[in-house]
């Protein structure tokens, strides 16, 4: 009888596809890594499984223990999926203004959801998670400080990009939230070729882009190492949403707002380069943003 995999075996090995129209007439190749193809729909499936599996392997947690995490959405959905697969109760803490689709996806996987106000934001969510842990209500995985977050990308995302481009990648672009994707991919890709340029994206002041942040110094993720990023680009909410809609309408890639920012940055780079191979992370799917109205025709 064949051995059938569980759903966690389907995480990773996502497609890398070429953009046909948005780059225009160029000698460059602009590629999109479609992380929405992961089982729970985002790039966060990788670190979610890694953080649980590695903690379990060390004996830090065992099935039945309650896990706690602060999230703006994608990590929470991914952790809810991974916790369901591995047998862990999960409490997620999230700012209230995030999309209904995200909230419903988390609870569909069986997670308990606690909301903080928009004013408290992710900083407040992170503070509450740590307070709950100190009261003995569960264990915080802490995606912002947990080395098993970038480890997932060092072990999987980076090697996939290197293999899929046959080592021809010259630039890697990713929006930065926890910064785990940028940190892990940078560590792997620069081992292969130190000349590969790592570009991180953050919102301009005043922009609200789900999943990425311009962190206050006190809340800067501990896994972040500025030396691993060659360039940080600011991206506006308007530009991210505009590129996100073009990505769907002109390339057939239905993705979220931070993915629009990542592609917008890749296109800006392409205008400055020749004969480059630019890989941008498309971190999730657009269907979890429909209730926000970002795809409405009048926008």
UniProtKB/TrEMBL annotation:
* Name this protein carries in UniProt: Cysteine synthase
Enzyme class, spelled out: transferase
InterPro entries named in the record: Cys_synth, Cys_Synth/Cystath_Beta-Synth, CysM, P-phosphate_BS, TrpB-like_PALP, TrpB-like_PALP_sf
Q: Which CDD domains match?
A: CBS_like (cd01561)
Its UniProt entry gives the catalysed reaction(s) as: O-acetyl-L-serine + hydrogen sulfide = L-cysteine + acetate
Residues binding pyridoxal 5'-phosphate? 74, 177-181, 258
Kindly give the Pfam families that the UniProt entry links to this protein. Answer: PALP
Q: EC number(s) per UniProt?
A: 2.5.1.47
Protein's organism: Parahalioglobus pacificus
> What are the recorded GO MF terms, alphabetically?
cysteine synthase activity
User: Pathway, per Swiss-Prot/TrEMBL?
Assistant: Amino-acid biosynthesis; L-cysteine biosynthesis; L-cysteine from L-serine: step 2/2
For the keyword Amino-acid biosynthesis, the answer is yes
Keywords (A to Z) from UniProt: Amino-acid biosynthesis, Cysteine biosynthesis, Pyridoxal phosphate, Transferase
Give the modified residues of type N6-(pyridoxal phosphate)lysine. Answer: 44
Gene3D superfamilies per the UniProt record, alphabetical: 3.40.50.1100
At the top level, the lineage of the source is: Bacteria
């Amino acid at each position: 009888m064949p051995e059938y995999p569980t759903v966690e075996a389907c995480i990773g090995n996502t497609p890398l596809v070429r953009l046909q129209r948005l780059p225009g007439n160029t000698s460059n190749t602009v590629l999109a890594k479609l992380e929405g193809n992961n089982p729970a729909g985002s790039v966060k499936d990788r670190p979610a499984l890694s953080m649980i599996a590695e903690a379990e392997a060390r004996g830090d947690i065992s099935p039945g223990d309650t896990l706690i995490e602060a999230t703006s959405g994608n990590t929470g959905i991914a952790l809810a999926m991974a916790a369901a697969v591995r047998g862990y109760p999960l409490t997620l803490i999230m700012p209230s203004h995030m999309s209904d689709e995200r909230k419903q996806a988390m609870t569909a996987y069986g997670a308990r959801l606690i909301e903080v106000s928009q004013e408290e934001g992710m900083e407040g969510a992170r503070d509450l998670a740590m307070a709950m842990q100190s009261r003995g209500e569960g264990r915080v995985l802490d995606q912002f400080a947990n080395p098993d977050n970038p480890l997932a990308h060092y072990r999987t995302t980076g090697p996939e990009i290197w293999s899929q481009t046959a080592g021809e990648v010259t630039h890697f672009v990713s929006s930065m939230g926890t910064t785990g994707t940028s940190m892990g991919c940078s560590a792997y890709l620069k081992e292969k070729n130190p000349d590969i340029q790592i570009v991180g994206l953050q919102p301009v002041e005043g922009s609200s882009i789900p999943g990425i942040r311009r962190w206050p110094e006190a809340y800067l993720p501990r896994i972040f190492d500025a030396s691993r990023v060659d360039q940080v680009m600011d991206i506006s909410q308007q530009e991210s949403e505009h590129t996100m809609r073009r990505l769907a309408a002109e390339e057939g890639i239905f993705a979220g707002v931070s993915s629009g920012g990542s592609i917008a940055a890749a296109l800006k780079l392409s205008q400055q380069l020749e004969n480059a191979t630019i890989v941008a992370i498309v971190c999730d799917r657009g269907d979890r943003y429909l209730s926000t109205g970002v795809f409405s025709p009048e926008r």
